[in-house]
Specification:
The longest helix is centred in the middle third of the chain and has 17 residues. The protein is 38% helix and 19% strand. The protein is globular and about 50 Å long. The protein starts with 9 loop residues before the first strand and ends in an 8-residue tail after the last strand. It has seven helices and six strands; from the N terminus they run E-E-H-H-E-H-H-E-H-E-H-H-E. The protein is α/β, with parallel strands linked by helices. Strands 5-4-1-2-3-6 form a six-stranded mixed sheet, with helices on both faces.
Amino acid sequence: MESEPAKSDIQAIYCDESCHLEHDGQSVMLVGCVWTDKKAVRHLTDELDAIKEKHHARGELKWQKVSQSRLAFFLEIVDWFFASSALHFRSVVVADKDKLNHAVFNRGSHDEFYYKLYYQLLHRVLLPSKKYEVYIDLKDTRGRLMLPKLRDVLCTAKHDYQGALISTIQNVHSREVGLVQVADFLLGAVAYRNRHLSGNAAKSQIVDRIEKHYQKQLVLTSPLAEDKFDVFIFHPKEVVGQ
């Protein structure tokens, strides 16, 4: 790998969601992000493209595409991520999603919980000394409509009432943004482990490789000092008598 570019005061955050719909039959819900210095984006994207070209991997990097025939490609992506000091990942896993009680805790709204979840994801990433551009994979029209409020919630939580902390927040198509694809891939691995799946040997090997680098299990909350690969497991509160 070539030497990485000099750092700037602008950070770029690339977000994705998994099992995020309220009634999709999944036991967990996740949001995750990859972030890096803005000046490193082009360099990292070129490196990602070079790995794709080396393995003749066309199209998007996606967790759903993981297969035994392409295992070497996906394992190299894992190794590349952990070798790059410029790349960071954080995820929030909602365990036992069916225990979410929106009527008590979220004013009856799954959307309200969505804002809280993104706050939980990003509050440790956002630093007052820097500026941020936030890019979120476009899932549906609903996501686009929620962006202005999400920006307000995040800025207010950081006491930035002028909205200067986040200069950009927008939806993007993952097929056009390589680092959103990286977020999808890593988040898929965290989801796979937390759903306690084991039927796909290639996916299991990728999760094992991540945990070898990470030196922790993906079903456990990371220590507060973790900065490279950070997992937070959220357990919904149960309401007595309901």
